[in-house]
Amino acid sequence: MTPFFTMSLLFGLTFGQTASLCAPSEYIIHVEKRECAYCLAINTTICAGFCMTRDSNGKKLLLKSALSQNVCTYKEMFYQTAQIPGCPHHTIPYYSYPVAVSCKCGKCNTDYSDCVHEKVRTNYCTKPQKLCNM
């Protein structure tokens, strides 16, 4: 191997995480309750993007720590609350959602992230839509 190729490979392995494309990204959440007259479209930011992962095909030869699969997840976040319009008095009209401030590549934390990708997931309104800019 040439010295340039070897240095490039070492640099890529060492600093691969910092060059990942994991960052806050604009996202619209659609929220509705059966009792309420409207669907609320909320503009927020989520963590999305690419994180370096390791091929687990050689799992018998590698340590468990070398097999970790990193995901783009929250580094800093806060929660906002929005009110769904058109709800009757007996219904709680509030919906809280996370807002990403910064992101990182790391292990998925089920305390505040949905770590499983569902195949049948809808993100649209079935009722008249109201826009919420927070």
From TrEMBL:
Cited CDD domains: GHB_like
Where does it primarily localize?
Answer: secreted
Q: Which GO terms describe its biological process?
A: G protein-coupled receptor signaling pathway
Decide whether keyword Magnesium is in the record: no
Q: Which InterPro entries match?
A: Cystine-knot_cytokine, Glyco_hormone_CN, Gonadotropin_bsu, Gonadotropin_bsu_CS
> What PROSITE patterns does this protein map onto?
GLYCO_HORMONE_BETA_1, GLYCO_HORMONE_BETA_2
Q: Which family does it belong to?
A: Belongs to the glycoprotein hormones subunit beta family.
Q: What is this protein called?
A: Thyrotropin subunit beta
Originating species: Pedionomus torquatus
Lineage of the species this protein comes from: Eukaryota, Metazoa, Chordata, Craniata, Vertebrata
